[in-house]
Amino acid sequence: MRNLNLRSFAMAAALPLLAFGGPAMAKAPAPTTSPCAAKTRVCLEAVARSYIDALVTHDGSKIPLTADVRRTEQGLTNAKGEHEVRESFVRTKMVESTKDVRLYTDVAKGEVVAFFLLNVDLKEADATATTKAGNTDYKVAVTKPAGTYTVHEAERFGIVGGKIREIEIIAHVEDGKNLGSGWPVERDAAVKEGKK
Questions:
Q1: Which domain, by its residues, includes 149?
Q2: What is the total count of domains within the chain?
């Protein structure tokens, strides 16, 4: 299977992954306030979810980020600083939805690890585009043809004072959309209802 460059998803991030091509954006909108700054499970997870939600809305303006935020994907830095991370979300337009989200939170360390699936519909124009990632030394080219994909995403968020400071992404891409995670449906239903 060929890899794809996710420049987001964080981007690399968030798709050897699927890079999101497109023209450079004007200055990103000013950041909004954090959903909460308390170092609690609820607050940390709300901050992490704001990033995951932005992959589908294609709008990074609502994510609480520190000025020096850094994002890496598959071990490569692809965005440094708040502006680069925010502007990269315009390139997530091929992301249609997320599903099977699982969060593992370490309150003491201020970290959330998210495992989830992304449904991607890569159009021909995006499949042939190239883009320069935030790190000027890293030129990304899309290595997947146009088509539909399911991205198995793992992201670690380092959160300080209610804002994301570190984003680390590992992703695997499969041909086809709406593939399952393999997690039992009963467990999915229980999580959605807030049961443990």
A1: 41-192
A2: 1
